[in-house]
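Supplementary notes (optional reading)

For those who missed the lab, this is the record we used. Protein: Sulfur carrier protein FdhD. Length: 291 residues.
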Amino acid sequence: MSPTPSSDRSTQKPELTDEGLGAAFAVNGINEFGETIEGHIAAERALTIYLNKREIVTLMTLGTQPELLVLGWLRNQRLVKNASDIRAIQVDWETESVAVTTHDAIDGIDEKLSKKTVTTGCGQGTVYGDMMDGLSQIQLPKVSLRQSRIYELLATLNKHNEIYKKAGAVHGCALCQDTENQRFVEDVGRHNAVDAIAGYMWLHDISGGDKIFYTTGRLTSEMVIKVAQMGIPVLLSRSGATQMGYEIAKQLGVVLISRAKGKHFLVYNGAENIEFDAIPNKITSKSNTAS
């Protein structure tokens, strides 16, 4: 079969297998009373990516959405320019591998793979090439957020985290619009969860300009860069931020909200974009009120 000309495949989607596996395993444990009880532990599987028969990297993952994970990983690594450039993504758990084939050879692949950064992601993420390349070209839209809507969104997201509630040991990420969760992904590392959502957005041509990205993990440089590459202007987390994540958020104009849980949050960048319309009552300690 002759290759499809690039001009004819701008809307063509890659062929994907459907090899998602269960996220948790039932195991017996002994509790603090010496009793045997059944519990659950999160899955952790190795998946080695082969790009045009070349071994690239091994990801550790739950394995629930491997095709979207790999698609998003390729996007966020900027190894493939367009989803339509990919012919197929084929996962084979017997060999713990995924074969990615593209329609054409990838320009500059050796240079991109020659530089590797091990990030602070859980289990250590990996970024190929210069992390800062192309950031100056990112233009994020200006947004306006109401404090009350942030609280509504957090309440909605609390209904998820299914694997965490069942087995622990995972991070979750969500693609949100206003107060609605549009896609929630859990994995053993937050970098995997964000890549799976990036793959979902890429596959379905979803714009990030009117979205909010939520993560249970730290707001590191890797997280800020990936979310900015997805075109999402707001990054929300129940955890804290790192210095480099903060500096890059300022550089790119990402609204950075951390420690978001219940009625509490800290805006480290972009507070001018937030309408504080639901300020909670301050709880004054007894020592401060005593006469």
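If you only remember one thing from this example: The longest helix spans residues 190-203.
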